[in-house]
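User: Predict aspartate transaminase's structure from this.
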Amino acid sequence: MAPHFTSSANDISSSSSSAQSRLANISAHMSPSTQSSVFTQDVVPQAPEDPLFGLMAAFRRDTSPNKVDLGVGAYRDDNAKPWVLPVVKMAEEKLRKDPQLNHEYLPIAGLADFTSAAAKLILGGDSPAIKENRVASFQTISGTGAVHLGALFLAKFYPRTANQPVYFSAPTWVNHHQIFGNVGLPVQTYPYFSSSTKGLDFTGMIKGIEAAPEGSIILLHACAHNPTGVDPTAEQWKEIAAVIRSKNHFPFFDCAYQGFASGDLKRDAWAVQYFIEQGFELVVAQSFAKNFGLYGERTGCFHYVAAPSGAEASSTATRVASQLAILQRSEISNPPAYGARIASAVLNDPALFAEWEGNLRTMSGRIITMRKALRQNLENMGTPGTWNHITDQIGMFSFTGLTESQVMKLREDHIYLTKNGRISMAGLNTKNIEYFSKCVDKAVRES
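Assistant:
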């Protein structure tokens, strides 16, 4: 029999009165005027504005009809407008007509048709690593998410000692420092860019990697180095691989521009595929923002490649995948579907793939044309200095060699670029190249 509880009206009234008294007492000590945040200024100081986003904001506020945006890290057509790749429109139409399309969650590792095709694209369709089942691939939140997932995995599992930092090129993409720092990995740099030649400091790079403690993680840009636009040659990549092997370092490739750099997908993946052929264990962060124009869809992939060691390699890849799944689950659970479906439709359809290759040649070709025009203009005007590095460099960005004071002079002419002299070549077009060239000539001569 269930217990029976009774209470008198007086009991209820007394209890209610007591509760009201306690609430009144609490409220007296909780007036808005007496409350302050636990996140005081000494605990959470004001963070500095991101320099690039600050530059973009300044450009948007500028009302000059002559303003030029050379900071943006996105492709622009000859009218300075975003370009939706024709192949992306084709893929979107194909998806729209698919009666099976839904908006359910993707698996934690992402869209399998996409990740497998992405692996073939960067590692090679006939890659021994893929054939031997020693690759673990995870769809990520674009290239940034791929770098982060790799950094998080290495922070948790890479067997490193206190004197083994992660080594970046000097300079590197600024977000590398933040991503690796946020997961608690110390970072150092190795020489990369020569301010005198405005090209690769190859000797310094080799010496820097050799001097790193054995077993260090070495981050490498697969192609179209950001921010310099300076890449090693194939022969130099071979020497880099040899010194990394001799020191038992661990390669971490960041590839944000495959096909976008040279217009040739295979050429831009050469370094990654060479390292795999040499039997390295490595990881790759892969972005589809630039080469598909899918900036806002945040489409990327992270690949772990085990060293060739028979059946053990496949087992290692499986174990790594199991841990990557846990990390992914705790971060985003499931990656976004739309961009991956677009990329997958293109990567797995020969006709669409051929169209995509044509689109890539259009983008890379326009940037190459702007490089040639800028160099020719500066040389024709006799602008002090040498300008061959403009065409020697490759990809979206160019380290012009302009000083900070020269950059600020250009700002007076409504031209926006980062203080280190890096420009996005995609921001130049046939309508502003003459104006920009003349402004550079004036800034260099005045300084």
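The chain has 18 helices and 13 strands.
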